[in-house]
Design a protein that fits this description.
mainly alpha; 6 helices; nucleus; transcription regulation; transcription coregulator activity; Med31_sf; transcription
Length: 126
Protein backbone atom coordinates (compact mmCIF):
# COMPACT_ATOMS: atom_id res chain seq x y z
CA UNK A 1 0.00 0.00 0.00
CA UNK A 2 2.95 2.35 0.53
CA UNK A 3 3.10 3.10 -3.20
CA UNK A 4 -0.41 4.64 -3.28
CA UNK A 5 -0.65 8.31 -4.05
CA UNK A 6 -3.46 10.27 -2.34
CA UNK A 7 -5.61 10.25 -5.48
CA UNK A 8 -5.28 6.44 -5.74
CA UNK A 9 -6.67 5.78 -2.26
CA UNK A 10 -10.02 4.01 -2.13
CA UNK A 11 -12.34 3.05 0.68
CA UNK A 12 -10.80 -0.42 0.75
CA UNK A 13 -7.34 1.00 1.47
CA UNK A 14 -5.98 0.86 4.96
CA UNK A 15 -5.09 4.11 6.71
CA UNK A 16 -1.47 5.18 6.63
CA UNK A 17 0.68 4.37 9.59
CA UNK A 18 1.45 7.24 11.95
CA UNK A 19 4.69 9.02 11.04
CA UNK A 20 7.77 6.87 10.61
CA UNK A 21 11.24 7.68 9.33
CA UNK A 22 11.10 5.17 6.47
CA UNK A 23 7.75 6.23 4.97
CA UNK A 24 7.69 7.10 1.24
CA UNK A 25 7.47 10.79 0.45
CA UNK A 26 5.18 12.58 -2.02
CA UNK A 27 6.41 16.05 -2.87
CA UNK A 28 8.43 16.05 0.34
CA UNK A 29 5.54 14.94 2.55
CA UNK A 30 4.40 11.56 3.81
CA UNK A 31 0.96 10.21 3.00
CA UNK A 32 0.14 10.60 6.68
CA UNK A 33 1.06 14.32 6.62
CA UNK A 34 -0.89 14.96 3.42
CA UNK A 35 -4.03 13.28 4.73
CA UNK A 36 -3.71 14.98 8.12
CA UNK A 37 -3.40 18.40 6.50
CA UNK A 38 -6.40 17.76 4.27
CA UNK A 39 -8.68 16.32 6.94
CA UNK A 40 -7.89 19.23 9.28
CA UNK A 41 -8.81 21.69 6.53
CA UNK A 42 -12.34 20.25 6.66
CA UNK A 43 -12.86 22.13 9.95
CA UNK A 44 -13.11 25.34 7.89
CA UNK A 45 -16.67 25.93 6.56
CA UNK A 46 -15.32 28.31 3.90
CA UNK A 47 -13.09 25.52 2.59
CA UNK A 48 -16.05 23.14 2.46
CA UNK A 49 -17.90 25.76 0.41
CA UNK A 50 -14.88 26.03 -1.89
CA UNK A 51 -14.81 22.25 -2.42
CA UNK A 52 -18.50 22.35 -3.29
CA UNK A 53 -18.06 25.28 -5.67
CA UNK A 54 -15.35 23.32 -7.49
CA UNK A 55 -17.85 20.44 -7.88
CA UNK A 56 -15.57 18.06 -5.99
CA UNK A 57 -18.35 17.05 -3.59
CA UNK A 58 -20.34 15.62 -6.50
CA UNK A 59 -17.55 13.36 -7.77
CA UNK A 60 -17.98 9.74 -6.62
CA UNK A 61 -14.23 9.22 -6.21
CA UNK A 62 -13.94 12.27 -3.95
CA UNK A 63 -16.96 11.18 -1.91
CA UNK A 64 -15.34 7.75 -1.52
CA UNK A 65 -12.14 9.46 -0.34
CA UNK A 66 -14.14 11.37 2.28
CA UNK A 67 -15.60 8.07 3.48
CA UNK A 68 -12.12 6.55 3.65
CA UNK A 69 -10.91 9.48 5.79
CA UNK A 70 -13.25 8.54 8.62
CA UNK A 71 -10.40 6.57 10.16
CA UNK A 72 -9.27 9.91 11.66
CA UNK A 73 -12.11 9.59 14.20
CA UNK A 74 -10.37 6.64 15.87
CA UNK A 75 -7.17 6.14 17.84
CA UNK A 76 -4.31 6.47 17.22
CA UNK A 77 -5.14 9.05 14.52
CA UNK A 78 -7.54 11.16 16.57
CA UNK A 79 -4.75 12.50 18.77
CA UNK A 80 -3.10 14.23 15.80
CA UNK A 81 -6.07 16.50 15.06
CA UNK A 82 -5.68 20.07 16.29
CA UNK A 83 -9.43 20.85 16.14
CA UNK A 84 -11.07 17.45 16.46
CA UNK A 85 -14.58 18.79 17.16
CA UNK A 86 -15.27 20.70 13.95
CA UNK A 87 -12.98 18.49 11.87
CA UNK A 88 -14.83 15.29 12.73
CA UNK A 89 -18.26 16.96 12.74
CA UNK A 90 -17.74 18.21 9.19
CA UNK A 91 -16.23 14.92 8.04
CA UNK A 92 -19.33 13.17 9.35
CA UNK A 93 -21.67 15.70 7.70
CA UNK A 94 -19.82 15.30 4.40
CA UNK A 95 -20.94 11.66 4.33
CA UNK A 96 -24.48 12.96 3.66
CA UNK A 97 -25.37 13.90 0.09
CA UNK A 98 -27.79 16.59 1.31
CA UNK A 99 -25.04 18.37 3.27
CA UNK A 100 -22.67 18.17 0.29
CA UNK A 101 -25.31 20.05 -1.71
CA UNK A 102 -26.34 22.48 1.03
CA UNK A 103 -22.79 23.63 1.83
CA UNK A 104 -22.98 25.74 -1.35
CA UNK A 105 -25.26 28.10 0.60
CA UNK A 106 -23.49 31.11 2.16
CA UNK A 107 -26.15 31.01 4.90
CA UNK A 108 -25.14 27.50 5.93
CA UNK A 109 -21.46 28.43 5.86
CA UNK A 110 -22.16 31.43 8.11
CA UNK A 111 -24.24 29.29 10.49
CA UNK A 112 -21.40 26.77 10.81
CA UNK A 113 -18.92 29.58 11.52
CA UNK A 114 -21.22 31.04 14.19
CA UNK A 115 -21.82 27.61 15.76
CA UNK A 116 -18.08 27.01 15.98
CA UNK A 117 -17.49 30.41 17.60
CA UNK A 118 -20.25 29.74 20.16
CA UNK A 119 -18.78 26.31 20.91
CA UNK A 120 -15.32 27.80 21.44
CA UNK A 121 -16.65 30.47 23.81
CA UNK A 122 -18.67 27.86 25.71
CA UNK A 123 -15.66 25.54 25.98
CA UNK A 124 -13.54 28.32 27.47
CA UNK A 125 -16.25 29.12 30.03
CA UNK A 126 -16.40 25.52 31.28
Amino acid sequence: MATDTPQDVSMESSPPAPPANNEPMYGGYSRFEIELEFVQSLANPFYLNHLASQKLLTQPSFVAYLAYLQYWAKPPYLKYLIYPGPTLKHLELLQQERFRQDIMSPDLVQKLVEDEMKAAVQWHRE
